[in-house]
Amino acid sequence: MSGIVEVTLPDIGDFEQVDIIEILVAVGDEIEAEDSIITLESDKATMDIPSPYAGVVKELHVEVGDKISMGGKILKLELSQGDSVDDRPSPTKAPVSEAVKGSADKLADVVVLGAGPGGYTAAFRAADLGKKVILIERYDDLGGVCLNVGCIPSKALLHAADVVNEAAEMAEMGITFGKPKIDLDKLRTGKDKVVKRLTGGLKQLAKQRKVELVHGIARFESPNRIAVKSSSGSLSIGFNDAIIACGSSPVQIPGFPNDDPRLIDSTGALALADIPKRMLVVGGGIIGLEMATVYSTLGSAIDVVELQDGLIPGCDPDLVRPLQKRIAKRYRQIMLGTKVIDIQALKSGLKVTFEGKQAPDKPQTYDRVLVSVGRTPNGKKINAEAAGVAVDDAGFIPVDEHMRTNVPNIYAIGDVVGQPMLAHKATHEAKVAAEVIAGLPASFDPLSVPSVAYTDPEVAWMGLTETEAKSQGVAYEKGAFPWAASGRALGIGRVEGLTKLLFDPDTKRILGAGIVGPNAGELIGETVLALEMGADAEDIGLTIHPHPTLNETICFAAEMAEGTITDLLLPKKRK
Ligand SMILES: Cc1cc2nc3c(=O)[nH]c(=O)nc-3n(C[C@H](O)[C@H](O)[C@H](O)COP(=O)(O)OP(=O)(O)OC[C@H]3O[C@@H](n4cnc5c(N)ncnc54)[C@H](O)[C@@H]3O)c2cc1C
């Protein structure tokens, strides 16, 4: 069937009178369904509006500079043979196709695969925007890696470690406590309670939003259908749009005795089975060092081995230095530029052979070895090819700034779309995907995704690092404030900290920030806001920070760059 139709602006959310900044078609053009026809710009974003039908453009009702609202006429289209208004509804509101309806056990506007921080956020946001949502998760508990075996349990244990360490350090102020008695069962239960409270809360939130939970292992069958297998059977779900949020898994090193229970990954470490006498942490990145902090405080003798020449690769060395100095005194050894070449599972322990710059002369034996050498995306485990979704060799799913994969109705978010693999990146991407599906003009274009190592001291950074600036030849000015001059840092007995800010030499706008010291993870947020708001050194320096606080060090670092600092001598060039 063919005919003439008016193409109007679909529901793009809560927007009225949006500017048309580009017309992408001309009278006489032959276009396909989904081809972009105009570009709109609101105060929040720009978005292309696709044609819902294929056909030939007969008349244009708008021009650049016009404003348009939902229902406003854009163009007149002569439909191609075989296309009709009835079977081609607006792409932003497409119902599940009849073919899918006929054969699926359940139907949804939006199916979300995986209930980690990416998945549950996407599901909840899509439901709040009026979509019928099914959230699929293989485990009984929601929350994914972050809540169950990642961010949350690790931070609960790190808090316990902080308390032990702070109590011990009070000796310098004349207050001593006895040696802490550690009830491992109670510590584990306490950590599990925190996790349960959060995962239970998610189930409630899903119920309140009428998000349907389906438990089982999901695999795509087509671009509109997914199968879920569980111990109680299989079912298929038809959908208009899908959001893949299947996360990542710990990397295993082939050739290691991976089945030996003494060789653990981060999940094994968080299970807190025992306090090993000697423990090797393979990988000096964030996760390995956080776990080392916990086990060292609980009493394990820790060795760390890292292939690179520095800990926390990617972080500026001056931020890592105070951490390394502190842990060098607490751990047995930190072996940099060194790798593990063999692990033998013996009755007496795991016998490890090293090679490299700081390798010990002979193999060492450990009660446990924690392998924390990174995480691998789960993109190859969901039968994505059946939906036509491209997955790269590493298992990542490429997406555009709208979180859309190469298949227009399938989106992907979180660890499975790329680095950095962090929960706060996943949740922000999740909202973008859900909003784009609901027709809102959203895109994922942050200026920075901050990173934090919740070690002792914490290390946090965002935006441009000094290392990147140097290697990319980016000009910058630096304001650095040593915590030794902070009254608050002195008061808590932690003067090793450093706050540094990088600024554009011309505009003086902030480019990046790095903080090392207790609570650096809490402090870095202000600098991310400054970056997103385009703040310059003067804005930060003139913002009155409460005294005495650690966040004052951000203000002081800006004053160092400005040359207005009075709490220290002026940097030489500013005198
Ligand atoms: C020890 C540790 C500490 C961490 N600490 C932090 C931190 O402090 N801050 C931070 O930002 N990040 C931290 N992370 C990283 C963070 O946990 C991840 O970035 C985050 O969980 C990614 O979220 P996601 O939604 O992409 O995937 P995930 O959390 O991995 O969730 C994916 C979900 O999908 C489910 N799934 C996968 N495949 C299927 C399938 N076929 N069928 C059904 N269900 C499926 C999984 O069961 C899982 O629940 C930490 C990670 C670890 C391991």
Automatic annotation (TrEMBL):
UniProt GO molecular function: dihydrolipoyl dehydrogenase (NADH) activity; flavin adenine dinucleotide binding
Chain positions recorded as NAD(+) binding sites: G283, G284, G285, I286, I287, G288, L289, E290, E306, G374
Encoding gene, per UniProt annotation: lpdA
UniProt record, GO biological process: 2-oxoglutarate metabolic process
Catalytic residue list: H547
Keywords: Disulfide bond, FAD, Flavoprotein, Lipoyl, NAD, Nucleotide-binding, Oxidoreductase, Redox-active center
UniProt feature coiled coil, ranges: none
Organism: Candidatus Thiodiazotropha endolucinida
Protein name: Dihydrolipoyl dehydrogenase
SUPFAM superfamilies in the cross-refs: FAD/NAD(P)-binding domain, FAD/NAD-linked reductases, dimerisation (C-terminal) domain, Single hybrid motif
All residue ranges annotated as the Lipoyl-binding domain in the record: 4-78
Similarity comment: family membership: Belongs to the class-I pyridine nucleotide-disulfide oxidoreductase family.
InterPro entries: 2-oxoA_DH_lipoyl-BS, Biotin_lipoyl, Class-I_Pyr_Nuc-Dis_Oxidored, FAD/NAD-bd_sf, FAD/NAD-binding_dom, FAD/NAD-linked_Rdtase_dimer_sf, Lipoamide_DH, Pyr_nuc-diS_OxRdtase
E.C. numbers: 1.8.1.4
Cofactor binding note from Swiss-Prot or TrEMBL: Binds 1 FAD per subunit.
Cofactor requirement: (R)-lipoate; FAD
Reaction(s) catalysed by this chain's protein: N(6)-[(R)-dihydrolipoyl]-L-lysyl-[protein] + NAD(+) = N(6)-[(R)-lipoyl]-L-lysyl-[protein] + NADH + H(+)
Further information: The active site is a redox-active disulfide bond.
NCBIfam families, per database record: lipoamide_DH (TIGR01350)
Positions that bind FAD: K155, D415, M421, L422, A423, H424
Disulfide-linked positions: C146-C151
